[in-house]
Amino acid sequence: MHFSNKLTAWYLQNRRSLPWRETKDPYAIWLSEIILQQTRVAQGLPYFEAFLHEFPTVFDLANAEEDKVMHLWQGLGYYSRARNLHATAKMVAFDYNGIFPNNSKELLKLKGVGEYTAAAIASFSYNEVIPVVDGNVFRVLARRFGINSDISTLTTKREFQALAASLIPKDSPALFNQAIMEFGALQCTPQSPDCTICPFQLECIAYQTNEVSSLPVKLSKTKVRDRHFDYLIFLDPNGNTQIQQRTKKDIWQQLYEFPLIESTTTELIDIKQQLTSLFPNLAIKQIELCNTDPIIHKLSHQKLHIRFWKIHTETALNNSSSIEELQKIGFPIVIHNFINNNLIDL
Fold first, then answer.
1. What range(s) does the HhH-GPD domain occupy (predicted)?
2. What is the pLDDT of residue 219?
3. Does CATH number 1.10.340.30 belong to domain 2-214?
């Protein structure tokens, strides 16, 4: 209990005021947890507020058009989270009569809800005595207790869950879980934590053995794949353009983009030859390369090299969209930014 008492005392003095901490509503807590996966609090907070404003209940989210959900998610990345969010909202609304399951075991049946998210909802909404183990918790426990096991393995994850379970007080599991995650986010940070003000300084094994910077241990590395995208922004005499939806199982699934040429090299493509081959009946007036140096857009496992081309046509485009309409459609953030910086007010 010494660990949990020190931890919660620190938390009560240092905690941030965040809207999902002021409620027991499982819908709001679930929404916050999905948004904050792979996302910093500062970035995720405006999205949480926007989603709650647009969809105040799980029924509102369930009945929303997918394009509207994806547009609201635009910029958060990991777009499968948004699709799972929408699917789970439908499941809760229509199969569970709008009531979220009240335990982690049943919550795991929801799409996009893994062990961490299920434990978080069950703990924060229903006070289930179950540890919530995320990256912050791994870091705090690894340093405080000097654990050198590789956290990328399932065996180590179970080791940390067991340790956290042995520390969690049965009368206040939600408080403990919030406290240890907040401690990792604010005090026991990944880089250069200020150990001089840490309440665990004297008993922290990593601090005593000068291993703070090397813990936790994560040995596996995700191989990064390079991809080369050339986007074709067709602009006709009416100021309209063409877009398409990414429907294949790949990055940005269900989001929209401009016609795309994907190549295997950073070398500048022969755009005239490509256009003649792909669009033989298109009357082209002018071609403009918007960026000679590719825009680098990094994903968790891919590095995209992106160029944008403006292709002015002499005749009107079929199946076209106005520039104004693009503002209501969900694009990957790199394309959204290009539209705002290069096409608006054309």
1. 35-186
2. 86
3. yes
Q: In this structure, are strands 302-313 and 295-298 parallel, antiparallel, or unpaired?
A: antiparallel
* 8 Å CB contact between 139 and 200: no
Going by C-beta distance under 8 Å and a sequence separation of 6 or more, which residues neighbour residue 263?
Answer: 228, 230, 269
Q: Is 132 helix (H, G, I), strand (E, B) or coil?
A: coil
What are 208-253's pLDDT values in tens digits? 999 999 999 988 777 889 999 999 999 999 989 999 999 888 899 8
In 3D space, the residue among 102, 104, 124, 123 whose CA is nearest the CA of residue 114 turns out to be 104
33 has catalytic annotation: yes
Residue 328's pLDDT band, with cuts at 50, 70 and 90, is: confident
Phi and psi at residue 315, to the nearest 5°: -120, 165
CATH of segment(s) 225-342:
3.90.79.10
The CA–CA distances, whole Å, from 220 to 129, 139, 285 equal 31, 16, 51
pLDDT tens digits for range 243-288: 999 988 889 988 999 999 999 888 888 898 888 888 888 889 999 9
Pairing verdict, β 244-245 and 256-257: antiparallel
